[in-house]
Design a protein that fits this description.
Blueprint: E1 8-12, E2 25-31, E3 36-40, E4 44-48, H1 49-52, E5 62-65, E6 69-78, E7 88-91, E8 94-96, H2 100-108, E9 117-126, H3 130-136, E10 140-144, H4 147-152, H5 158-164
Parallel strand pairs: 5-9
Antiparallel strand pairs: 1-2, 1-10, 2-3, 3-9, 4-5, 6-8, 6-9, 7-8
């Protein structure tokens, strides 16, 4: 079994009924015994970045729900590495955060595309050992992340598609209805 660490994915157990985490896939961008931070990859909004930053003319980059913490904050992952100062490497070819003014400048020059960067409103956060405890209680399945899953595979079926790659123990989850009590 894999352990939680930066650059891994958390796949929620379907009994997690919180709407932010129901059938969610979270990229861990930071993990320590003190805290863990991640971004939900598969919950798009109908909002685009140009609607949030209405005083800056931008292409309509989609915004995803990153998590329930600080919902009014913007976070981003990207493939641009050191082109964006103060970025943090998450895994091979994938980075988190960095200087937002540089991002806006590159966007205004059309030097960043939707394939290079993804934006999130809010983030997912856990306190001291909280995530490790949730994992011990089978609230999350841990999976390796890679740049392609995190950047190119952004549709809502990501959770189902990843569950189908796991062992047979989880196969029944893939077709589980939103509320199994209604069956």
């Amino acid at each position: 079994m894999l352990n939680a660490k930066k650059g891994r994915l958390l796949i929620s157990e379907p009994a997690l009924t919180d709407p932010v985490f129901f059938k969610s896939v979270v990229l861990l961008t930071h993990h320590s015994s003190d805290e863990s931070i991640g971004l939900v990859l598969n919950h798009p909004t109908k909002i685009h970045l140009n609607e949030i930053l209405n005083n800056i003319p931008l292409s309509d980059f989609p915004v995803y729900i990153g998590g329930p913490v600080e919902k009014n904050s913007i976070h981003f992952i990207h493939t641009l590495g050191d082109l964006i100062p103060n970025t943090e490497k998450v895994t091979d070819g994938l980075y988190w955060g960095g200087d937002f003014d540089t991002v806006l400048s590159l966007m205004s020059k059309n030097e960043i595309t939707k394939d290079d960067i993804r934006f999130f409103a809010g983030y997912s956060g856990w306190g001291e050992n909280q995530l490790n405890e949730e994992i011990r209680e089978d609230g999350w399945i841990i999976n390796n992340a890679n740049k392609d899953i995190c950047m190119k595979y952004s549709n809502p079926t990501l959770w189902t598609d990843l569950i189908k790659t796991k062992n047979r123990k989880y196969a029944i989850w893939a077709n589980m209805p939103k509320n199994p009590n209604l069956n």
